[in-house]
Design goal:
With about 325 residues, the protein is of the alpha/beta class. It has helices at about 5-30, 35-45, 55-105, 115-130, 145-150, 160-165, 180-195, 210-215, 225-240, 240-250, 275-280, 280-285, 320-330; strands at about 110-115, 135, 150-155, 175, 200-205, 220-225, 260-265, 275, 285-290, 300, 305-310, 315-320. Helix 1 packs across helix 2 (about 35-45) and helix 1 runs antiparallel to helix 3. The protein is elongated.
Length: about 325
């Protein structure tokens, strides 16, 4: 039964017992309401005070019945309280064990350190893209929010090596630092880089002047949300049409147009095939806007003679379903 409904039922049962006692004494013994209420309360509470008036045989039998009902009710009430406490504790333990089991099974996931405004938005976006995420958050007040969001999380300081290891840093694909201060983020980058030299680390910086410190600590990429927000607002003023197009391309709820980057596997049947012979445009109705070569060079608007090579990254625009089909071909 729902806890709220069970609490209401307990209150109604208690009021019903009081009402039954009052009516019984007023009917059997012809007492007034206050005497009947007093006798009912001391009987249900089993405090052992003396009787208000001398009871008849019928009154004594009714008192015995009222005592049994009262004891039964309080046993029920105590059982409910104990069950509520025990079930809550068991639910907490089992829920934590389930989360730990899920985290231990993850591989190629991202660790998000900090579940504030930026961390939460980032987590939602990654989950919508079917990317596994583990949150490390120190603030216990956010536990209820993380439970409501159904995310895997650990509670504690992200700078602790044991917690990063528990989050699967050696199996993770990347880590994002989004804790409160730049100093904590820099220390976190240092710790993560020592634990996992090949890990991709993206750091959040609140100020432009600290970016070099993050890079020196080992961050692969440093982003400033405030700077990015200001640049985005400027683009909306200067290039509104381009900005609207990018919104469409990166908006995951829209299926009419999206932009994706797809790595090319050595096993792809399109390896060493020129774009003109790949059938990407004809078969999937996609536009290839750029190809990132394995050495890092970016070919924008590649010509139809461009050959798709292993370890390239193809950046395409089109419908989501067609992008997924192309991904199965390029990265089987």
């Amino acid at each position: 039964m729902d806890p709220a409904k069970r609490t209401i039922l307990s209150i109604l049962l208690f009021l019903a017992l009081i009402g039954l006692g009052c009516i019984g004494y007023m009917t059997i013994e012809n007492w007034n309401f206050m005497d009947a209420l007093y006798m009912t309360i001391i009987t249900l509470a089993t405090v052992g005070y003396g009787e208000v008036h001398t009871l008849s045989m019928q009154g004594r039998l009714f008192t015995l019945l009222l005592i049994l009902l009262g004891v039964g009710y309080f046993l029920y009430l105590m059982g409910y309280i104990i069950q509520f406490l025990v079930e809550g504790r068991i639910r907490l333990i089992l829920g934590r064990r389930k989360l730990d089991t899920q985290i231990n099974r993850l591989k190629g996931h991202y660790i998000i350190c900090g579940y504030g405004r930026i961390g939460r938005v980032l987590t939602r976006y990654l989950i919508n893209k079917n990317i596994d995420v583990v949150i490390i958050e120190q603030n216990t007040d956010l536990v209820a929010i993380m439970n409501d969001d159904h995310v895997s999380y650990l509670v504690g300081e992200a700078m602790e090596e044991s917690l990063l290891i528990k989050a699967g840093i050696h199996r993770a694909k990347g880590l994002v630092t989004a804790v409160a201060t730049d100093a904590d983020n820099v220390f976190l980058v240092l710790t993560a880089r020592q634990l996992a030299p090949d890990l991709k680390i993206i750091a959040r910086a609140s100020q432009e002047k600290v970016k070099k410190k993050f890079e020196a600590a080992g961050a692969d990429s440093v982003e400033s949300p405030y700077e990015m927000g200001a640049v985005s607002m400027a683009h909306r003023i200067i290039r509104p049409t381009v900005t609207n197009f990018l919104d469409l391309a990166f908006e995951h709820q829209r299926k009419d147009i999206q932009m994706e980057e797809i790595p090319v596997s050595e096993l792809s049947k399109l390896v060493n095939v020129p774009l003109k012979d790949s059938g990407i445009r004809q078969n999937y109705n996609l536009i290839i806007i750029a190809i990132k070569k394995s050495d890092g060079d970016m070919l924008f608007n590649p010509s139809f003679e461009t050959v798709i090579m292993p370890h390239d990254t193809v950046i395409a625009v089109g419908e989501s379903d067609n992008l997924q089909k192309l991904e199965k071909v390029l990265n089987p």
